Amino acid sequence: MADQKFVAIGDIHGCVRTLEAMLKQLEEHNDRTFVFVGDYVDRGPDSRGVVDLILNFKQDHDCITLRGNHEQMLLDAVRSGDVSLWMMNGGQSTLNSYDNGPGELDLPDEHIEFFKSTRLFYDTPDYFFVHAGAPPYRKIADSKKDKEAPYHFLWDRSHLNALETAWEKKVVFGHTPRSHPIVKDKMLGIDTGCVYRSLGYGKLTSILLPEEKFIKQICLDH
User: Fold this and answer.
1) Are 200 and 180 a contacting pair, CB within 8 Å?
2) Who's near 51: CB < 8 A, 6+ residues apart?
């Protein structure tokens, strides 16, 4: 396992054409484990298409699909029926992609099961893959046992300003859009704001590991 090779793919946010182009770029690496770091839905034009594409891709590839905070908000809305937080964070575009009218929350069972099956993290000997990050002052092994772990793994940004971390391995994450990938000691951030093209981001980024080679795809969905 220590010599396992990975491709990690950053936040997609409903940009299915961009994801299709990225996967085309990555075809020569199809023997690797693909790690999607979450935020498949919301804000972009075709969240349903993104989920369909990933479900199809998983049939022929070794894939790990992590949960982002946007998938968590969707699941919370499905469970509680309260969509207010989700709608404030781009959820309407997801409902539109499922042809849901005002007040509707009707998603295919296969897609609900996909969202439920997503993982909070993927831990390997050399890398810790997670959506948002982990507390910088605590070892990853300890954070995994913490009852607050779901919050940190889905939402945390405290590590971004840390001068150093207690992490015992490199953490690969998305969640925080930047114009370029974040490369710091034990820290690899790959959210380059695919859906935010109008704000000067507008790229989907993946990283080959252990080479730490970045592959970028300009957003094609706007």
Assistant:
1) no
2) 40, 41, 111, 114
Q: What are the structure tokens assigned to 157, written together?
A: 């940004």
Helix (H) and strand (E) counts in the chain = 8, 10
Q: H or E segment at 112?
A: helix 109-117
| Fold type of domain 6-218 | Purple Acid Phosphatase; chain A, domain 2 (3.60.21)
Instruction: Decide if pLDDT at 1 tops 60.
Output: no
pLDDT interval class at 2 (50, 70, 90): low
Residue pLDDT, tens place only, 31-43 = 999 999 999 999 9
Is there a contact between 186 and 163 (Cβ–Cβ < 8 Å)? no
CA distance 35 to 7: 6
Domain ranges of the chain: 6-218
Amino acid at site 123: D
% the chain with pLDDT above 70: 99
Indicate the pairing of strand 63-65 with strand 33-36: parallel
